[in-house]
Design brief:
The complex is a heterodimer of chains A (125) and B (207).
Chain A (H helix, E strand, L loop, with lengths): L1 H22 L2 H24 L4 H13 L2 E7 L9 E17 L2 E16 L6
Antiparallel strand pairs in A: 1-2, 2-3
Helix pairs in contact in A: 2-3
Chain B lengths: L1 H8 L4 H16 L1 H58 L6 H5 L7 H16 L18 E8 L5 E2 L5 E2 L3 E10 L5 H8 L4 E10 L5
Antiparallel strand pairs in B: 1-4, 2-3, 4-5
Helix pairs in contact in B: 1-2, 2-3, 3-5
Classes of the chains: A alpha+beta (125), B alpha+beta (207).
Chain lengths: 125, 207
């Protein structure tokens, strides 16, 4: 029956759109997890090395760019005395193309931030 | 047949209705009419089933998965913060004792460092009360904080075996659900969900 085929088609289109819409909710969450993991690695290196040197900074920048971040801002001390607090502050824009209506997609941008503090490691032996 | 029905159903006019009425009634009584009723009925049934699936299966399943994902993500964030805090206790090692091949902490200093770093990383004030940008939703509680220096292997209060100098900490961080917050908390009969994070971090005594 043509009526039934049309109804089934419409239902399928709506269901697939909903599925895509729901799955795309996870993209920014996954990007935030990537940001946290990359920054945590850098913070551990900072703790060990007493700061964020240029190599580590550019490596972090590259990692974040590869994860889809733009307008990245990295703030961290390059040198800290042992026993001093070290804070890594990273911000970046994550943009992704998202289904906003049944047949419409739009670019969305969200600003994500990471800020954690550790203590520069004291070499005692 | 379909044209007649559409015309009849959309009310195309009383004259048309009268002219077609008897023919349609005759047709509806026949076998073809019953097939039409069945086709329209099954299409309506499909729409109703889809709506029910959306309301009772798709949305609840999606919400549950999403909520769980966000909760696990918050727990990971908290665990990372506590781990980073534990490792910072390294700075409270007693260097003189290390020279004698023995590991010891200045306990008071270690406790102070832990508390200070926990407050900074979880964005709490001095009384462990969360600030507006904190992941915690109510006062954070340090359930246990132990420094293991000797007598290995030892078992921490949460059952993990520790074989090297380490810091054991267990922290209770109250958080709230992100989706359907009111419904979930009402069902649980609580103001927040307690996330208890237990982290054992080895202290890098040999740099």
């Amino acid at each position: 029956m043509p009526a039934r085929a049309v109804v089934t088609g419409v239902i399928l289109v709506i269901m697939i759109s909903l599925l895509v819409y729901f799955i795309e909710f996870f993209l920014p969450l996954s990007a935030k997890a990537d940001l946290d993991i990359a920054c945590r690695d850098s913070l551990l290196r900072m703790e060990n090395g007493g700061g964020l040197d240029n190599d580590d900074r550019s490596e972090l920048q590259k990692e974040l760019e590869a994860a889809g971040f733009t307008n990245i801002v990295i703030n961290a001390a390059a040198n800290a005395r042992q026993g001093e607090l070290l804070t890594l502050h990273v911000e970046g824009d994550y943009s992704w193309n998202r289904l906003t209506d049944l047949f419409e997609r739009e670019d969305q941008v969200i600003r994500m931030m990471y800020e954690k503090t550790t203590m520069s490691r004291k070499v005692v032996n | 047949m379909n044209n007649r029905l559409v015309c009849f159903k959309t009310g195309a006019g009383r004259a048309v209705e009268n002219a077609l009425g008897s023919a349609l009634r005759r047709t509806m009584r026949s076998g073809a009419g019953s097939a039409l009723r069945s086709a329209v009925g099954s299409a309506v049934a499909e729409v109703v089933v889809m709506a029910a699936m959306l309301a009772f299966v798709v949305f609840p399943v999606f919400s549950t998965v999403m909520e769980r994902y966000i909760l696990l993500d918050k727990a990971r964030l908290i665990r990372d913060s506590v781990d980073m805090t534990n490792i910072s206790v390294y700075n409270a090692l007693n260097a003189e004792r290390l020279g004698k091949v023995s590991v010891d902490f200045f306990d008071e200093k270690a406790g102070d460092i832990f508390r200070e770093l926990l407050c900074r990383n979880l964005k709490l004030d001095g009384g462990l009360i969360p600030r507006s940008d904190s992941v915690a939703e109510a006062q954070v509680e340090i359930l246990s904080l132990t420094f293991y220096k000797e007598g290995f292997p030892v078992v921490c209060p949460d059952g993990s075996t520790i074989k090297r100098p380490a810091v054991h900490s267990c922290v209770n961080i109250p958080i709230r659900p992100s989706l359907y917050r009111g419904v979930i908390l009402n069902l649980l009969g609580r103001d927040h969900i307690d996330v208890i994070v237990h982290v054992d971090s080895e202290i890098p005594v040999n740099n």
